[in-house]
Design goal:
Blueprint lengths: L3 H8 L6 H7 L16 E6 L3 E6 L4 H8 L3 E2 L2 H20 L10 E7 L4 E7 L13 H11 L1 H8 L5
């Protein structure tokens, strides 16, 4: 694809048949969901149908979907996020978001150097967005139920 200003720079004063040009023009795709304009396509996760296709109208429904972090530019992004949320739901089945100061707060980690999933705990240091477990055994149950490969892919976003 070439941008119009590049065409003008390349061909200068040539004349253009505007009717034929309209057939060739391709609307630029938004770079993020915050760039969506009326008529743009997007995807969102639905409780019933998993991933739904929608057309942006900028109405209250669209705005709520985007503000809740549930709007995606592609089906693949929505599908990935759905799987990530499923993993997180399993982690919350055994764990919690609340950090308990001066108590053991076990969490699942990924060691990039050794390419392995592990369990760590902190008593006084809290990380943003972490799911904590009351025991190493509960963290291990979450790992076993999700599976290490799914954890690496969807939670830690490790690309093979």
């Amino acid at each position: 694809m070439i941008k119009l200003n590049e065409i003008q720079a390349k061909y200068g004063e040539y004349l253009v048949d505007e009717e034929k040009l309209k057939d060739l023009l391709v609307k630029p795709k938004p770079k993020t969901v915050w760039d969506l304009k009326d008529g743009d396509e997007y995807w969102h996760i639905s409780t019933i149908n998993n991933n739904n296709y929608a057309t942006w109208n900028g109405n209250a429904w669209d705005l709520a979907i985007r503000e809740n972090g549930n709007a995606f530019l592609t089906y693949d992004e929505a599908k990935f996020e759905l799987e990530r949320r499923k993993c997180e739901a399993i982690m919350l089945k055994y764990g919690r978001r609340l950090f308990k100061y001066k108590q053991n707060n076990f969490f699942i980690k990924y060691d990039h150097r050794n390419d392995c999933i592990g369990i760590e705990y902190w008593i006084e240091i809290q990380y943003q967005g972490t799911i904590y477990f009351d025991s190493e055994e509960l963290a291990q149950k979450a790992i076993d139920e999700i599976g290490e490969e799914r954890l690496k892919k969807y939670v830690f976003r490790v690309e093979e």
